[in-house]
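dumping this here before i forget
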Amino acid sequence: MSISLYATRLCWYGHHGAAKLHGVLVALSEPPTICGARVEGIDYVPEIGMRRIQPRNDGWRDMTTTEVASADELLRWITREDDVA
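structure:
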C-alpha cells in the first residue's frame, strides 16, 4: 500500500517506515514508540480503518484504543512543521 494514497499513515516494517499527517511526510529511521514501547511493526491508516500493530516479541494484531491515541499523538509530534525541513 503506497503511503502517497492517504493523508495520514504511520508505518514501520522491519528497518524502515514513515509518518504522514495532513500531507506532511517524515521518513523514520528507527521504530516508533507506542504506549511507551518500541514496536516491531505498525500499519496505521485511520482513513481506511487499518489499525495493525506488532509489539516486540509478538505477532500482528489489531491496535487497542490506547495504542491508537498514542499513534495519533506520535504523528502530531513527528510531523510538526518546525521539525520538517
